[in-house]
Structures are given as structure tokens and as C-alpha cells.
Prior knowledge:
The protein is about 20% helix and about 30% strand. It is an alpha+beta fold.
Amino acid sequence: MKQFTLHCILAGTLCFASCQSQENNNATTTEPAGNGTATAALPPEPQAPDSAHLIVPGERIGPLTLNMPHTAISDAMGEPDSGNAAMGKSLQFWLNQGQPQDYLAVYIVNNFDGTGSPAKVKQIQVTSPNYKTSNGISTGSTMPAIREQFGSLTPIAYYTNKQNKKVYIFDDQAEGITFEVTPPDSTCVAITVHEKGKDITATYLPIHPDTTRLRQPQQPR
């Protein structure tokens, strides 16, 4: 009797294990309804920034637009936190009070064309990562990510930052946008918008006085 009982226990155990294994297999091999092909989840699309923080190459950064009269800047941004002017050109800065290294800057030029027209915004720069292109490029983006969106980048100059490291300036002249990038991690630290198709080699935002040009400016045709 004991032997019969033992055989029954073993048979029951094996039957239970077999059923459990079959359930596990069914759970792992069950395919979704439809054509039987599972679809991998795609990463979410980058959320487009609001208009107040949008970078549009060749046009604007946030509320500031290229060729905006300097008299309209304070209406859009308020009074600047700092600035300087000389010989018909000026720089104005608006600082992020919580992150003072983050700023929005404009380069303003008076054409002295005799028409009496006000000085106009010619370049706009931002270092805050809150400002992004429609595809999510901002300061903090890497050079490979930037090249995916802007494939015609050319190094035009470099300067040495406060950490004694070289920062290279890459320009997409046709699109009207530049990126300042620090090696060796190739991370963007500043973005500048300028007029499309305009060579700014000689007129790049004069924030860093030690900037070294890598090529001579193109002569206008």
C-alpha cells in the first residue's frame, strides 16, 4: 500500500509540474490579436517648446526677432540686466536670476544708412537649455544630435572659456544658426541665431574678445 501511495504522490507531482510548465509557456508565447506581430513601443516625440522659448533658425529666439528695432526690445523683454555699446553697436543681456550663467543676449547694429532708421537686432544668443528648436535641440545637446538636424555645420572660430578650455563655434550659414561646442564631450553651451545665408565670420557676437577665426570672411558678390 505504501508503494502504491508513493507512486500516486509522484504521479500527481509530475502532473502538476507539467501543467504549471504548460501555463508558463502559454503565458510567454501568447501573441497579441491581429497579424500576430508584436510592435515595440516607440520613444515619445520631443515636446515642442512654447513660443516664448522657441528657437527658429534665421528668425528668432523666444520673443526676440532678427531685424527687430532696438526700441521694441524692452517691450518684449523688459530692461536688460547689463550691456555695453560703442561705435554704433551694442550688446544687451538678460540673466536668469536662478541660474546666472544662463542668459539671453542680443547684438544690435546701427547701419548709419542716413535714413534715420533705428538700430536693429542682428544676432541673438541663448545659453539657457529652456530654449529649444522645434526638434528639441538646445544647449546641453551633443554634437551628433545637432548634426542630425543641421547637416551643413562648418567650424568658423574658437575661443578659450573660463576653465581654460577651447570652445568651437560651428555655423550653419544657410539656416542662420550657430552652436558653441566644448570638447571632449562635444556638448553645446550656446546657440546663436543670425540672418540666413549671411557669413558672420567677421561679425560674430563679440562676447569673447579672444575669439580666433578659422577662416577668412567671404567677400560679398
